[in-house]
Amino acid sequence: MTKITPQPGIMDIALYQGGQSHVAGVKHVIKLSSNENPFGPSPKAIEAVRDSAATLNRYPSTDHASLRDAIGTRHGLNPARIICGVGSDEVLQFVAQAYAGPGDEVIYTEHGFSMYPIIARMVGATPLMVAEKNRHVDVDNILAAVTDQTRIVFVTNPGNPTSTMIPEAELVRLAEALPQTCLMVVDGAYAEFVADFDGGAALVDRFENVVMTRTFSKIYGLGGMRVGWGYAAQSIIDVLNRVRQPFNLSLTALAAAEAAIRDEDYLTFCHSENARLRVWLSEELAKVGVPSDASCTNFILVRFEDQAEAEACDDYLKTKGLIVRRVAGYNLLNALRITVGDEEACRRVVAAITAFKGGVA
Ligand code: PMP
């Protein structure tokens, strides 16, 4: 028996539960459990990946200058204040590594992304969950939980798995009230799905202690490439770069992300198709007694009578080859999260849930 024991707290870290992608005994499945882009990446990103193969003998850029320039151009941001990571997960981790440790507290909200408490524990800090109100982040609840030990507050806007937005004025109120010793991280993984929304960039420019994180995994369809980025005050970016591995992003990932962000036509296509299909999906499901909040994202959170009905529906969908996400682990017991797929996927979901509810599909 080995005498080697892990560091204190390591075994308290929950293993991340990702979206399921297989169903035993079902050959052809449609995966609607991880909020991926059903249309795939931009054809230009695929071409860039192919082209990158010829130079795989070379190390990738350490400073990601070309990708940061492309992000800066697209969003009107100073590239020097951008940092890139292996998914936005890694950027969130940089923040925790650099700013929190044993004895510190990290606040996240009841239905917040499950990586926040995992990341807090990874650095030895204590995660503290704060209640939401009717699936909306409640700023007063957050402020009531802040102590002298609070180092980071994570909020997601729009939320996952709630799909709801935090009003701008509420975020300003939160940023204004937080002590200067506490960072506020605005996670904008789904920001691109909201029309005319800066994802929190203006907040970063106004408040020194606000960090915005973004991802290429959602609207850009590059979940498999693992590219995310953060935007913050120069002083914070300078700190975060010290905990970043020099070659954290592969040459291929950098090429794909840069080509994707430069392809604005494809982005517009994905945005409008998602908006159209999302509205149709939620309206059709509401008609058969399965309501959802108005969604600002590429998924909807549908509600059932109770947890038993939500789970029975999930089981039924699986028999039809449709994999959606259970969210009981996010304190949403009677709900399922369904990624907005392509037209065929949406039609199949509506037909299956209609049949489940006893209607004719
Ligand atoms: N934040 C939120 C709210 C998410 O839903 C996700 C992905 N599920 C992430 C961050 C991490 O995304 P990635 O690491 O793929 O950029």
From TrEMBL:
<dbReference type="Pfam" id="PF00155">
    <property type="entry name" value="Aminotran_1_2"/>
</dbReference>
<dbReference type="InterPro" id="IPR015421">
    <property type="entry name" value="PyrdxlP-dep_Trfase_major"/>
</dbReference>
<comment type="similarity">
    <text>Belongs to the class-II pyridoxal-phosphate-dependent aminotransferase family. Histidinol-phosphate aminotransferase subfamily.</text>
</comment>
<dbReference type="InterPro" id="IPR015422">
    <property type="entry name" value="PyrdxlP-dep_Trfase_small"/>
</dbReference>
<comment type="subunit">
    <text>Homodimer.</text>
</comment>
<feature type="domain" description="Aminotransferase class I/classII large">
    <location>
        <begin position="27"/>
        <end position="353"/>
    </location>
</feature>
<keyword id="KW-0808">Transferase</keyword>
<dbReference type="GO" id="GO:0030170">
    <property type="term" value="F:pyridoxal phosphate binding"/>
</dbReference>
<dbReference type="GO" id="GO:0004400">
    <property type="term" value="F:histidinol-phosphate transaminase activity"/>
</dbReference>
<keyword id="KW-0368">Histidine biosynthesis</keyword>
<comment type="pathway">
    <text>Amino-acid biosynthesis; L-histidine biosynthesis; L-histidine from 5-phospho-alpha-D-ribose 1-diphosphate: step 7/9.</text>
</comment>
<dbReference type="InterPro" id="IPR050106">
    <property type="entry name" value="HistidinolP_aminotransfase"/>
</dbReference>
<dbReference type="InterPro" id="IPR004839">
    <property type="entry name" value="Aminotransferase_I/II_large"/>
</dbReference>
<dbReference type="InterPro" id="IPR015424">
    <property type="entry name" value="PyrdxlP-dep_Trfase"/>
</dbReference>
<feature type="modified residue" description="N6-(pyridoxal phosphate)lysine">
    <location>
        <position position="218"/>
    </location>
</feature>
<dbReference type="GO" id="GO:0000105">
    <property type="term" value="P:L-histidine biosynthetic process"/>
</dbReference>
<keyword id="KW-0028">Amino-acid biosynthesis</keyword>
<dbReference type="InterPro" id="IPR005861">
    <property type="entry name" value="HisP_aminotrans"/>
</dbReference>
<protein>
    <recommendedName>
        <fullName>Histidinol-phosphate aminotransferase</fullName>
        <ecNumber>2.6.1.9</ecNumber>
    </recommendedName>
</protein>
<keyword id="KW-0032">Aminotransferase</keyword>
<keyword id="KW-0663">Pyridoxal phosphate</keyword>
